[in-house]
Write a structure and sequence with these properties.
about 150 residues, mainly beta, 1 helix, about 5% helix, elongated
Length: about 150
């Protein structure tokens, strides 16, 4: 099997909407995950570099299960340097590293656009892996087509 790296993104957390649990306290281990789990809407923005270059904005509808697993559901858009827009949706998981403020990320990504220059992104799903650094509130993911 061959994989082609199409871009990488570096996103900053620009805002968090919580639903009764404090995300920072939860991730720092100062609070326990409630029995029902926790939900956070995490606003993200940052640059995209590679075969697709531009800026991404979106919201990760993050769910934290009582066992600590983080379920990711990111919806957003990429605006390319030439002014085209690509719809971005991703689902995956975040796995906290033991004893570190890092969460390893694995996602399946769907991209969609009617812009002719980027029609190749519509053909098949992409896959991404990377990490979230909870000390800097930054996320880095590399994205590959299969």
């Amino acid at each position: 099997m061959s994989y082609e790296k199409i871009f990488e993104y570096d996103l900053d957390i620009t805002g968090v909407t919580d639903y009764g649990a404090n995300m920072e306290a939860l991730f720092a281990g100062q609070e326990r995950v409630p029995l029902q789990g926790a939900q956070f809407d995490v606003a993200l923005a940052g640059p995209v570099k590679g075969r697709v270059t531009g800026a991404m904005r979106g919201i990760d509808y993050l769910r934290v299960r009582p066992d600590g697993r983080r379920e990711l559901e990111l919806r957003g858009s990429i605006e390319t340097e030439d002014g085209s827009r690509i719809a971005f949706s991703a689902e995956g998981v975040g796995s906290p590293r033991d004893g570190e403020p890092i969460v390893d990320l694995t996602v399946r990504i769907d991209l969609l656009t009617a812009a002719a220059a980027y029609s190749w992104v519509n053909a098949k799903p992409a896959y991404g892996s990377g990490y979230a650094d909870l000390t800097t509130n930054k996320i880095h993911v590399e994205v590959y087509l299969h």
